[in-house]
Amino acid sequence: MPASPATLVDLADPTGDQGKDGPAYADGLRLQLESSGDQLTATVTMAATLPAKLASSEVMGIGVDLYRPGGSESDYQLFADGEPDGWYAYLDTPTGFTRYPGTFDLVQSRVVFTVPWSALGDIRSGQTSAFVDWSRNGATTSVASADHIPDAGRVSFSR
Predict the structure, then answer these.
(1) What CATH code would you report for 6-154?
(2) Distance between CA 54 and CA 3 in Å, rounded?
């Protein structure tokens, strides 16, 4: 029987802090990191169900940044790009974007990234944060919102 995942981070974020123009599904409420064997699962929970496809005028990005100890820029980023034709997952590494090495799921109000720790340089400890960017371009006006988990800074993790 496989071991239960170890919770590395479980961080709540205030409701409604995505900005007045952003929809509820652009409001990040929680960041969770769980380690199970050689896999990391990073989950970002939103305030409302995410659309499987965004409206033709919308784009959205949800990212989880992972920093090695002492780093000022994220070493790795799990990124989900939401567009009118669906959602796509990416991994940004110190050497640039690579083919996404794991699974990516959109489950109601959650974005779930699962990747092998080896794709993240087998990082053992560091810091993390998440962000949500959303925008809609209209014929005469454009609106955008941004949310961060935590609102400022990062949180530490160790496995």
Answers:
(1) 2.60.40.1190
(2) 37
